[in-house]
Write a structure and sequence with these properties.
Blueprint: H1 2-20, H2 28-42, H3 47-57, H4 59-71, H5 73-76, H6 95-117, H7 123-137, H8 151-170, H9 177-199, H10 202-207, H11 213-217, H12 219-237, H13 252-258, H14 273-300
Length: 301
């Protein structure tokens, strides 16, 4: 019995590590954009909404972050942030399991999502293909967009914006200029978030020979780039219908979190982790505020 108990505990631990590699703390950041875009466009809660939200909630993140943890294992060994909510430090024996878990959980939901969507909006297939390509291209050898400065931030932002664009596309939304401005603001937010997050890893990334927007531009310049992108997102929100312009104020907490590190040296760049931890908490408060604004918009339109 004791051997069976130990074996069961080992399986639970391994399963927990695989799940941790999907960054549960960030699941909402990909599922919510799809769900919100779809519901606000169609006004319906249907099977496609449920299946799509489930896909972008767990399997999508398991693919995106799990594959990243597999191919970044050697550099993650040098990174003190890894091994918790900010990224699993996966034992090599789990690498194959993580990749297969992502593929096997994604496949049935993808098939169901495509079947439910049908061929009414064929370009939505292109959007989904781009989204999945960005997930793999960020980390896999031969592409490794994460090691191409600026392209790394662009690809990372695509990870979060593309679920929203897919939700809009599959729902048959009309892409007006205010909607484009909103998506552009979201994209700027995503680039800023990635760039600021990369600052804390300048030292371990350079030690591992990994290029990034932060290793290329330096810690201080990258923080300032992030500040500028968040400010651009704020300005773009002014072009959206009421109450959208109120969302322009929601960048202020991000500016507050990053501002103290605008002159941080490369050697001290790890100190920006305090700002990054604030960023993670800020996301939840801002996400709540965005949800309230969306509900308000839906009620008055």
């Amino acid at each position: 019995m004791s051997g069976a108990s130990t074996h069961g505990g080992g399986l639970r631990h391994r399963a927990g590590q695989v799940l941790l590699s999907s960054r549960p703390i960030s699941w909402i950041n990909t599922a919510f954009p799809f769900a919100a875009a779809y519901v606000l466009t169609t006004g319906e809660v249907d099977a496609l909404l449920v299946v799509g939200t489930l896909f972008f909630l767990i399997p999508y993140n398991l693919l995106m972050y799990g594959i990243n943890d597999v191919f970044d294992y050697e550099s993650d060994l040098r990174n003190p942030r890894k091994g918790g909510a900010e990224g699993a430090l996966l034992d090599p024996s789990l690498h194959r399991a993580v990749v297969w878990a992502g593929v096997l959980t994604s496949a049935p939901l993808l098939i169901a999502m495509l079947w439910l969507a049908g061929t009414g909006e064929p370009w939505s297939w292109v959007v989904l293909a781009v989204s999945l390509f960005a997930v793999f291209a960020y980390s896999v050898p031969g592409l490794r967009f994460k090691e191409r400065p600026l392209l790394d931030s662009i690809t990372s932002s695509t990870h979060f914006v593309s679920p929203a664009v897919y939700g809009l596309a599959v729902a048959g939304a009309e892409f007006t200029w205010p909607l484009v401005a909103l998506l552009a603001a979201f994209f700027c937010w995503g680039m800023a978030s990635h760039a600021f997050g990369a600052v804390q890893d300048v030292v371990p990334d350079r030690a591992a020979g990994i290029a990034s927007v932060a290793t290329a531009f330096g810690a201080a310049a990258t923080v300032r780039l992030a500040l500028g992108l968040w400010a651009a997102a704020s300005l773009l929100m002014l072009a959206t219908p009421w109450p959208g312009p109120l969302a322009a104020l929601l960048v202020l907490p991000y500016l507050w979190a990053a501002w103290p590190y605008r002159s941080v040296t490369d050697a001290a760049s790890g100190e920006s982790n305090r700002g990054w931890r604030s960023f993670i908490l800020i996301n939840y408060f801002v996400g709540f505020a965005v949800t309230m604004l969306m509900i308000w918009w839906a009620l008055i339109r």
